[in-house]
From TrEMBL, chains A, B:
One of its GO terms (molecular function) is FAD binding. The gene is glcD-1. It comes from Roseibacillus persicicus. This is FAD-binding protein. The keyword Oxidoreductase applies. Keywords: FAD, Flavoprotein, Oxidoreductase.
Length: 454, 454
């Protein structure tokens, strides 16, 4: 296979080197499977040639962006070819006059954000890994982030795609227009398809005028339930913050252990309320929100008036993750979602789960849209004896989520990590629709086989 | 067929009465085709039974909401059954705590907007016909409207759907969560599918905190190009208005003829800039925008500070349409879209087209997203001798649109009206993907046959 691919693409785009196979066997999840060969595509034509070849020879192809996925989506579980688009990393066009950017899939998300900001424009989706992850991966997983509360997820910013289909056919869906009702929503169908329906080789992304200003309030509360109630109060009072982030007592304790007891004001729950807009709007909204937080019973409220101050809070927030890692335990990070009114019940359930299983559970995340990262902190997950009860605890978590009309993944995708609960989550008829669409576009299951459609 | 349907559903849900057949033979476009029978479904179960029956007997089923479509999408061009969901018109749930409403497809769009507003929440999509059209139709066509510039189109507000598939199977896609990455974007796939992939029997729609205030500036300019430049200036200055609406000289002349010469300030182009947000934000932004408009060369600028004043402008704006109708000509309203930087070229092309064909062309619409309603004003369109050159002019328009990377429909859908340009618009490979998906979900073409997939 290596020789045939070299004949198609040239030697510098094809590797079977041990280190290349190893780095392309994993993403950020806890499972590795080696490909037989890694292809570094440099153009749409390269991708098309690889897929035509793979299609003809029924060789699995797993597409890879920056390899920052959290669910094993880019892990080539059936071997074959890993097709990396990392070298396709050019911003082809930045066109504020049309309100769009045209990018290759390997562009790092923050690179686009920065380039847009330089000309006064904004690409809002902000997954936590935005400095490392690529837009192709964001599109494949329909990535989210804190600011999706106000701005929506990746799919809300994809206007058009160039896609290579399973047999190598190149097609375009959507386009350069901000509204487009020409046929089915094919652009959206490819967004979030996790490499199972086609390979994105170019994306036309919506950018919007950059907000003039952002600012933030942080508050602590005696109880998680009070912080959750404050979230509802804020939204019910006609405010739509750019982000509403909540953190539970367990996570705060880990942060205080790691960063020092004085790193955070007292309280068993922490809330971040970020807003953006025109200068004057932000200035006027801050005291309104402060008053709401105060009435909601906040123990402490701090105001962060500019970009640097906001970034410092986000940095602290990221330290929460490092604090959990510093416990020495394996963090099973599940990006579940609940209807927003169920936030308190979710955290209560997490506490019960921790008590019943002896596995600590840390909850923090995007309170505004109910997308909470529930982290099971597991000792020696590689030890089968420890893995078994941890996996049983995950089953309990996901059963609870589904019983409460939640979703098993909000922004990471299904990949391998959530595969076990996928059919239960969508139900039989929905699963059949998935299969029908997969069969319609990739009947031989060449594209990313072994994932949530088996 | 009538008797079998009565046996399935009961006599009061099935009609072959002449007037029912006649009213269900048309929508707002200019073509009629009578169904053999009209079914008034009252439940998901009714819809499922009809589709199972139709599927078994290969009878065409054309779904109908309020019948307000502009492209013949609900016209049963191959006869068979028109399945009306107009009786399924209940708001099942309004849940601000979860940020959502659950509705049946027959709910009138404005009814939901009003119900949400009463509890301080907002359902933004605002097609011009929102007092008459229904949410099921909005979903089928992915309806837009002026405020989509800031808030996005219908698909951005659909969280979950109950859908009856071609064979009568009931499925659910998406759900009650604001983020959901469980599998493919099936919710989005059904949104905008114009009745070709399934029938929506329930929708879970996102609502957001209601903006506290809205206000508006209206301005006139000596030239259309100056108004279009002002649109770019506003967006390039970091403002994201809720609406940016532009009107050309021909339309303004018709309005002055119809409403009186003094109904509008002097100028060959008219711009509406609507903003919303917190009180203080709106107050501060109005003078900033006024200054931008002034610098952009506006001949007149008027400020409209509250809801009532804004509504008066929207009422005037609707009169522009009536003014065109008052010319006595048939208005062929094409909701084309261009990349925003092409606005001026579009209107110049429209003027040339008018000059070359003798058919007046009126342009007005959503400048912010490039979605301009281009209205060809045709005399005696029913007369084949007049229809022919008008259709040839439409061909010229759509050829120009596609050559300039525009879209043939921004918010009305393809239906019958745009069918003739659909394949050209999407290209061969994309068309094949459409067919593959249609075949995967409705291989016998029971659902809305004769539309853009033949």
């Amino acid at each position: 296979m290596q020789q045939e691919l070299i004949a198609l693409l040239g030697a510098d785009k094809v590797s079977v080197a041990t280190d290349d196979l190893a780095t392309h066997a994993i993403d950020k999840w806890n499972f590795a499977a080696s490909p037989e060969v890694v292809v570094f595509a440099e153009s749409t034509d390269d991708v098309s040639k690889v897929l035509a070849f793979a299609h003809q020879n029924k060789i699995p192809v797993t597409t890879r962006g920056a390899g920052i996925g959290y669910v094993g989506g880019a892990v080539p579980i059936q071997g074959g070819i890993v097709l990396s688009v990392a070298r396709m990393n050019q911003i082809l066009e930045l066109a504020p006059a049309d309100g769009l950017a045209v990018v290759q899939p390997g562009v790092i998300t923050k690179t686009l954000q920065d380039s847009a900001a330089e000309v006064g424009w904004y690409y809002p989706p902000d997954p936590a890994s935005l400095k490392e992850c690529s837009l192709g991966g964001n599109i494949a997983t329909n990535a989210g982030g804190p600011r999706c509360l106000k701005y929506g997820v990746t799919k809300n910013y994809v206007m058009g795609l160039e896609v290579v289909l399973a047999d190598g056919t190149i097609t375009r869906v959507g386009g350069r227009c901000h509204k487009n009702k020409t046929g089915f929503s094919l652009t959206e169908l490819f967004v979030g398809s996790e490499g199972l329906l086609g390979i994105v080789t170019e994306a036309t992304l919506r950018i919007i005028p950059h907000p003039q200003r952002r600012a933030m309030l942080t508050a602590t509360f005696a109880q998680f339930s009070e912080a959750a109630a404050a979230v509802q109060t804020i939204l019910n009072s006609g405010h739509l913050p750019s982000a509403l982030e909540i953190t539970d007592a367990f996570t705060l304790q880990a942060a205080r252990d790691y960063l020092g007891a004085d790193s955070l004001p007292a309280g068993e729950a922490h809330l971040i309320v970020e807003i953006d807009g025109r200068n004057s709007a932000v200035e006027a909204e801050l005291p309104e929100l402060e008053s709401l937080l105060s009435t909601a019973g906040a123990l402490s409220i701090e105001t962060h008036r500019d970009d640097a101050a906001c970034e410092a809070v986000w940095k602290l927030r990221r330290e929460f993750s490092y604090s959990l890692r510093a416990t020495g335990l394996t963090k099973l990070n599940e990006d579940i979602v609940v209807p927003r009114s169920k936030l308190v019940e979710l955290v209560e359930f997490a506490q019960e789960l921790a008590a019943n299983t002896g596995i600590p559970v840390a909850c923090f995340g995007h309170a505004g849209d109910g997308n909470i990262h529930v982290n099971l902190m597991v000792e020696d997950y590689d030890d089968p004896e420890k893995k078994k009860p941890a996996d049983a605890a995950l089953d309990q978590l996901f059963n609870w989520i589904l019983a409460n009309r939640g979703a098993i993944t909000g922004e990471h995708g299904v990949g391998l990590a959530k595969k076990r609960w996928f059919q239960q989550a969508v139900g039989e008829a929905n699963f059949s629709v998935h299969q029908a669409i997969k069969n319609a576009l990739d009947v031989d299951a060449v594209l990313n086989p072994g994932k949530f459609l088996g």
